[in-house]
Design brief:
- It contains ten helices and eight strands.
- It is of the alpha+beta class.
- It has an eight-stranded mixed sheet.
- A hairpin with a 4-residue loop joins β2 and β3.
Length: about 350
C-alpha cells in the first residue's frame, strides 16, 4: 500500500515538474526568440505592398497584401485561422413551390369577396383605386347625418345677452381710474429707472469679476510654466533626458531593419522640384547608405522603384530598455517633481 502511494506521488511530481518546465520554456521562447518582419514595396504601373510577420519558425505567421485590394491572413502551424476580409460562402437558392399563391392572385381574390370586379388587363394601380373606392363607399353609408342643436336658433347664431348693462358698468370703472393714473405712471417710471441702474451695476460687476478671474488664471499658468521650466533645467531633469535619449537610440538601432535594398526613380514636372526632393532624400543618406539608389529624372514626371527590408525584434531587449528607464533613480525623482511630489521622493 505504501509503495503505491509513493508511486502516485512520484507521478504527480513528474507531471508538475514537466508543467513547470514547459511554462519556463514558453517564457524563454517568448523572451529570446525574435519576431521577424519583412516589407516589400513596388511601384510601376500600380502599387504593390506586402508585409509579413512570423515567430518561432513560422509557428505564428501573419501576412498583409495590398494590390488594389487589402487582404490579411493569420496562420497558426500553417493553418489559416483568420482572414480579412472573410471568404464569402455561396448562397443556396430556395425552391419556390408552385402551390403558393402570388400577391396579385391573393389581392384579386379579396376584391372578388367584397363584390368588386377588376378587369383582367388592369394593373396594380387600378386594384388599389378600386379598393379605396370600395372602402369609401362602405364608410360613407355608416356616417349619420348631424342633428340640429336645440339651443341654437334657426340661423345658427347664439342668443344675444343683455349687453347694455355690461357697457354701462365698464364705462363707470373707466371713469373711476382717471384720477390715479398720473401717480401710477410716475411710480412705474422711477421703478423702471431703478431697475435700469441696478442692471448696469450688475453688468459692470460681472465684467470686473471676469477680468479678475482671467488675471488669476494667467498668474496660475505663469507660475506653472515657471515651475516646470525649473524642473526641466534641474540636474535630475538633465540626467533623465540623457538617459531617455540613450535608451531610445538603442531601441531604434534594435528595431531598425537588418537588411535594406531598393532603387527609386523620381521625376517631377519642374526640374527644380525634382532637385529639391533629391536634396531632401539625401539628408537621410546616413540611414540607408549605399543600400538604396535614387535616380532623378528631369525629363518625365514619374515615381517608380522597389524597396525591400527585413529585421527582427526581441522582447527581452524591449523589456530591458523599459526596465532601465522606469527604475532609474533620476527618472523616479523627475516624475515626482512633475507631479509636485518632490517631498515624497
Amino acid at each position: 500500500m505504501l509503495h503505491i502511494l509513493l508511486l502516485l506521488l512520484k507521478i504527480i511530481g513528474i507531471v508538475l515538474l514537466a508543467l513547470i518546465g514547459l511554462f519556463v520554456l514558453v517564457i524563454l521562447l517568448v523572451l529570446f526568440v525574435p519576431v521577424r518582419y519583412d516589407l516589400r514595396v513596388e511601384e510601376k504601373e500600380s502599387i504593390f505592398v506586402r508585409t509579413r510577420v512570423s515567430w518561432l519558425l513560422h509557428l505564428l505567421h501573419a501576412s498583409a497584401v495590398y494590390d488594389g485590394e487589402f487582404r490579411v491572413v493569420i496562420r497558426l502551424f500553417g493553418i489559416p485561422v483568420r482572414r480579412i476580409p472573410a471568404p464569402q460562402k455561396p448562397v443556396k437558392e430556395k425552391k419556390q413551390s408552385g402551390k403558393k399563391q402570388t400577391k396579385k392572385d391573393a389581392g384579386e381574390a379579396s376584391y372578388a369577396g367584397q363584390g368588386i370586379s377588376i378587369p383582367e388587363d388592369a394593373g396594380p394601380d387600378t386594384c388599389s383605386i378600386a379598393k379605396t373606392d370600395g372602402a369609401q363607399s362602405a364608410g360613407s353609408a355608416a356616417i349619420p347625418a348631424p342633428e340640429a342643436d336645440e339651443g341654437s336658433n334657426a340661423d345658427g347664431n347664439e342668443p344675444k345677452e343683455n349687453g347694455a348693462d355690461t357697457e354701462s358698468i365698464g364705462q363707470t370703472e373707466a371713469d373711476g381710474t382717471v384720477f390715479g393714473e398720473s401717480e401710477a405712471e410716475k411710480r412705474s417710471f422711477f421703478q423702471k429707472l431703478a431697475r435700469f441702474f441696478r442692471a448696469v451695476r450688475a453688468f459692470f460687476s460681472k465684467i470686473l469679476y471676469t477680468i479678475r478671474h482671467i488675471c488669476d488664471k494667467i498668474e496660475t499658468v505663469r507660475e506653472t510654466i515657471a515651475y516646470y521650466l525649473e524642473v526641466l533645467k534641474s540636474d535630475e531633469g538633465q540626467r533623465t533626458f540623457a538617459l531617455v535619449k540613450q535608451e531610445l537610440g538603442k531601441l531604434l538601432r534594435h528595431i531598425a531593419p537588418t537588411k535594406l535594398k531598393g532603387n527609386l526613380t523620381i521625376g517631377m514636372d519642374d526640374p527644380a522640384a525634382t532637385g529639391q526632393i533629391i536634396a531632401i532624400l539625401s539628408m537621410f543618406y546616413p540611414i540607408y547608405g549605399d543600400n538604396v539608389s535614387i535616380t532623378p529624372d528631369f525629363d518625365e514626371k514619374r515615381i517608380e522603384g522597389s524597396l525591400y527590408l527585413k529585421g527582427r525584434i526581441r522582447a527581452i531587449t524591449l523589456i530591458r530598455i523599459a526596465w532601465r528607464i522606469y527604475f532609474n533613480k533620476d527618472m523616479k525623482k523627475f516624475l515626482h517633481m512633475l507631479k509636485r511630489e518632490e517631498n515624497k521622493a
